[in-house]
Amino acid sequence: MTEQQAETFIHHVKAESVGAGARFLTRSGEHSAPVADTAVVPDDFGTPAVVVATLEDGSRVRIAHGSRIRVASARRPAQMPGALAQDDLELIPAEEGTPEAVVVAVARAHARNAGVQRLAARLSRGLNAKAGSHLQDVRDLAHTLFVELDDRERALTVCRLIIDQPFDGNFGRWKWIESALAIAAHILRESDGEEDRTEALRLAEALRAPDDADEDPFRAKINAEVRQRQLNEPNLYDKEIHRAMAAADRTAEREWRELRLAALLYVRTHGGSETLEPVELDRRISNELVAIRALDVQQRNS
Q1: Which H or E run includes 9?
Q2: pLDDT value, residue 32
Q3: Which residues pair with 159 in a beta bridge?
Q4: What's the start-to-end Cα distance of the chain, in Å?
Q5: DSSP codes, 21-50
Q6: Region 64-70 average pLDDT
């Protein structure tokens, strides 16, 4: 690594914030000559329209006013309290309408949440819906938005990045899609619109896709019986949660409650329990959300 590379830090700034000495960072990773001066050019109505940066080599760069670009400089970026390193928080500009653009917009809306920033930094570099790790990151981002931040609109938007993926027999990948389906269906069920409730039913049907995947009649019958028992008596981690509460271990309690919430969301969306009515499942889901968010507040204040 050269001395220049070792002392270079990446910033993601608005065009009008570019200062002297900064170097533009291209998509190929190369640095421009340092900026010598900048000027703002207004449009015909007097509104700032373009930032013109003059570089030390005499060339000029025109940038739309208000746009965000990557620059490199010798100044270390400020770091948010409790946040990750800036390299993890750096977001690559994404083309409008792409999954990466959705992720970047979510990250900008929750700029002070380290968990959102960490996940968004990975996904904004390129989302591969065939990769299990990417599916997990999308699901985890939606989960954070829904559970921790109570941002249902953006959680649903993130879920939609993967919930149209069909079941292909790979349960390692499917479990993250399945979880996103359950989150999205719950959000839509609680919406007022008839179209939202119709979509929730469609997502529930998609979640049940593995139920009919086995073409062997005997195995399909056995699997159906096992699945029904699991739906009727889901593991809700009662012992583990009580043990964590008795030990005043808030971190462990939160982790077990998240697993309980995931189980409840799955059973509710599947719609196949013979022992737990939809109203009861909705009540328990609401209780878990309240409990998890209360634990988050306690941990932040401790």
Answers
A1: strand 9-14
A2: 83
A3: none
A4: 42
A5: T-EEB-TTS-B-PPEEEEEEEE-TTS-EEE
A6: 77
CA 219 to each of CA 70, 206, 270: distance values in angstroms, whole numbers, following the listed order:
55, 21, 20
Tokens 């409008």 correspond to: 96
DSSP state of 276: S
Digit-coded pLDDT (tens) for 190-211: 988 899 999 999 999 999 999 9
Phi, psi of 49 (to 5 degrees): -120, -45
Distance CA 31, CA 281 (A): 55
Tell me which residue of 199, 201, 219 sits closest to 269, measured CA to CA: 201
Say which amino acid occupies 202: R
Greatest CA separation for the chain: 77
- What gap in Å lies between CA 302 and CA 300, rounded to an integer? 6
- C-alpha distance from residue 24 to each of 11, 77, 141, 210, 251 (Å): 10, 15, 30, 49, 43
The per-residue b/e assignment along 190-223, b for 16 or more CB within 10 angstroms, e otherwise, is eeeeeeeeebbeebbebbbeeeeeeeeeeeeeeb
**Which pLDDT does position 212 carry in this prediction?**
83
Q: What is the pLDDT of residues 149-164, one digit of tens each?
A: 999 999 999 999 999 9
CA distances from 274 to 176, 229, 271 (A): 25, 9, 9
From residue 302, how far is each of 5, 97, 209, 258, 296 by CA, in Å? 40, 41, 44, 20, 10
In angstroms, rounded to a whole number, what is the distance separating the alpha carbons of residues 130 and 141?
17
Two tokens at 116? 């959102």
Average of per-residue pLDDT across 16-21: 77
